[in-house]
Design a protein that fits this description.
This protein is α+β, with helices and mostly antiparallel strands and about 180 residues long. The chain contains 6 helices and 8 strands. Strand 6 and strand 7 form a beta hairpin.
């Protein structure tokens, strides 16, 4: 199985957010902002997803100008990459056992056996939404949608799933210091 490398695999979106911020420093209008976003299709897609999530909030107030929308998006990404969980978040978080970090579809994900997930129930193998920060030594991770408590690390989980074609082709392992 191939392996994917990130400058900081514990916070894989940090560098992308910094790159986008740098490109936006030179933007002068909506066209420049959209061009800056389109340079990185992953960040562009996440911005679109963020806009969808925020649409109800924005409709209740005035729809912010595009540069303010991007600023809110980057602040959200900053929170996802830097704010650690509280004890209460971890107490209610699903547990991901037999997990490893993988890259597919342009994003870093966690793959493992989940239990206590609010929508998926328990004891099934999942690929999480993209992860933004992970601290294996403290046994937690933050994805786009939630925190997870981490059980045992197991690279072979994704290799077995790949062999059974239970996960999409082209999955690359992300090596994390565990």
């Amino acid at each position: 199985m191939k392996s994917m490398s990130y400058r900081d695999p514990r916070r894989p979106f940090l560098e992308r957010a910094e790159d986008l911020r740098e490109r936006l420093r030179h933007s002068k209008g909506d066209d420049d902002i959209l061009a800056a976003l389109e340079v990185d299709p992953v960040m562009h897609n996440m911005f679109y997803h963020f806009q969808q999530q925020m649409s109800c909030t924005w409709l209740q107030t005035d729809l912010p100008e595009r540069h303010k929308q991007v600023a809110e998006f980057l602040a959200h990404v900053d929170d996802l990459t830097s704010v650690p969980p509280t004890e209460a978040f971890l107490r209610d978080a699903p547990v991901l056992a037999k997990w490893c970090a993988v890259h597919f579809g342009g994003y870093p994900h966690l793959f493992g056996q989940v239990s206590g997930h609010p929508r998926l129930g328990g004891q099934r193998f999942i690929a999480t939404s993209p992860y933004f920060q992970i601290d294996p030594s403290r046994a937690w991770a933050r994805t786009w949608s939630r925190f997870y408590v981490l059980g045992a690390y197991d690279e072979s989980t994704v290799q077995r799933a790949n062999g059974r074609r239970a996960i999409e082709e082209g999955v690359e392992l992300i090596r994390l210091p565990v």
